[in-house]
Amino acid sequence: MNAAAVSAAILEPSTPSPAAPTAPRPDIAARVIAWQRTHGRHGLPWQHTRDPYRVWLSEIMLQQTQVSTVLAYYPRFLERFPDVAALAAAPLDDVLGLWSGLGYYSRARNLHRCAQAVMAEHGGAFPPSSALLATLPGIGRSTAAAIAAFCFGERAAILDGNVKRVLSRALGFGGDLASLKEERALWQLAEALLPAQDMDIYTQGLMDLGATICTVRRPQCLLCPLQPVCVAQKEGQPERYPVKTRKLKRSARSNALLWLQQADRVWLVQRPETGVWAGLWTLPLYDDMAEPRRLGHGWPGQGEPLAPFQHVLTHFDWALQPYRHVLPAALGPAALAEVEAALPAGRWVTLADAAAMGLPAPIRKLLLG
Question: What is the tens place of the pLDDT at every residue in 95-112?
């Protein structure tokens, strides 16, 4: 299905097919815009600005994260890094420290890289088009379009998870979005629906509908402005859409954590730059409890296993078993050096300093409550 055929499918009735709308939809944008003006969200701190830095920051934070969570992080982040120059100049550890608890830490690393690229390649100003924005680290096609629509008024389609759900239901788009071909077809439909003006209001309206009305489960169809023209609602099966058959294969793993403490300081190690918790600071990890127990038996002080807990990530469930060993506060330099020699490379950090570091959420909760 080429772009012309896709556009025609929106504007004219067509023969029903799994991957195409089944009725004309010329008024979708108008309905979304009218609803957004009256019922959409208007009090979020990143709204009512055309500053690309602030919009970009909010878009990255909101990926895979609830608005309620982002509301606590966004102002703290801006206070520490008020503009792209401040973010680019900051050490990565400082960025990860403020990001700690938001999860998906590759976003924070890409945020830092992107800020540096804006400074080095664009003179400190975000480029004013979605095409150029999408060349920056961590900015995908949909995020680039959102920034361009909000800040520069560009007619660019967004297609994040929420918007895929809204449009696939409204249009009756039954194509399997696990297929790149079908996702491209939905992109073409999204572009064909773009209004001639009020791009920022339309874009925000789609986001708000997906977040508050057209939810994954129990969508509030009676409150939706698209209800009169929504194919999925007429079918009585909105939760069938969007279609995506390929599922992530989940796995499980388990590790032991060594919580070694002396007075008010703990031994932390930095994770490699790739993989889970990349670049973050954590307690030393071991394959099982045998090694921390063995080490603890040879050290002064007291050691004990703590209650295990589960940490759920996108693609696996992680069983973590902490072993806490408290060294005597008055341990001499030679004895302390012997303990350190048995540990993976790291450093002593006071609990107060650890609070400002990039710690994975479960390690932060374990150490700091």
Answer: 999 998 888 899 999 999
Q: With b meaning 16 or more CB within 10 Å and e meaning fewer, what string describes 167-180?
A: bbbbbbbbbebeee
CB 285 within 8 A of CB 221: no
The amino acid occupying position 182 is: E
Euclidean distance between CA atoms 358 and 92, whole angstroms: 9
Tokens of 175: 């194509």
**Burial status of residue 231 (CB atoms within 10 A of its CB: 0-12, 13-18, 19 or more):** buried
**Which residues are paired to 261 by β-bridges?**
266, 326
**C-alpha closest to that of 178 among 116, 101, 243:** 243
**357-359-360 Cα angle (round to 5):** 160
Distance CA 191, CA 146 (A): 13
Q: Is 123 left (phi over 0), alpha (psi -120 to 50) or beta?
A: left
Q: How far is CA 44 from CA 68, 78, 162, 293, in A?
A: 10, 14, 18, 50
Catalytic-labelled residue, pool 59, 121, 182, 338: 59
User: Is-catalytic flag, 154?
Assistant: no
0.90 cut: is pTM over it? no
pLDDT tens sequence across 307-340: 999 998 878 899 999 999 999 999 999 999 999 9
Between CA 344 and CA 289 the distance in angstroms is 16
